[in-house]
């Protein structure tokens, strides 16, 4: 099944959040296992994870936890997801390495998304944004030079907002 979501390509944590969107009403890619498979494929995780019920529940827990951190600044659930894995530092033949260590593979995609959120928060927490269009629920990581991006996509939400303002002025 091709990925039906209107906005792809965000960092893993935000890409997981963007499995919910508004298009002719609320949509949710993760309402079934087939949607999980679509997300794992889009996130290039099919070689590391299986789309099964246990992984589905773990990914849903991670999505809720990431949302709670970004929207409500509540870290408890994210810490619960992160407790399922760690970064193991080691010395290999080629030099120092950091290896992801998640003992239960069911939690790997969820843990990777939660860990990615930590990376984003460490780098630039103010660049994690929700689209400014009032009818959009998508998130993005602002990579613009001056950090003033407002919409997940200028072509959709940005144009709709500007057109609505234009028509409101004309009326």
Structure description:
The protein has 171 residues and is α+β, with helices and mostly antiparallel strands. Helices cover 44% and strands 15% of the residues. It contains six helices and six strands, in the order αββαααββαββα. The strands form three sheets. The chain has a two-stranded antiparallel ribbon. Strands 3-4 form a two-stranded antiparallel ribbon. Helix 3 packs antiparallel against helix 4 (76-82) and helix 3 runs parallel beside helix 5 (108-123). The longest helix has 20 residues, at 53-72. The model has no long low-confidence stretch (mean pLDDT 92).
Observed structural traits:
171 residues, alpha+beta, two-stranded antiparallel ribbon
Q: What's the β-strand tally?
A: 6
Q: Let me know the largest β-sheet.
A: 2 strands, antiparallel
The 3D shape can be described as globular
- N to C succession of SSEs: HEEHHHEEHEEH
Percent range for helical residues? 40-55%
Span between termini: 44 Å
As a whole number of angstroms, the C-alpha radius of gyration is: 18 Å
Helix count, DSSP H or I runs of 4 or more residues: 6
Mean pLDDT over the full residue set: 92
Low-confidence stretches: none
Helices and strands: which structural class?
alpha+beta
How much beta, percentage-wise? 15-25%
> Strands across the major sheet, in which order?
1-2
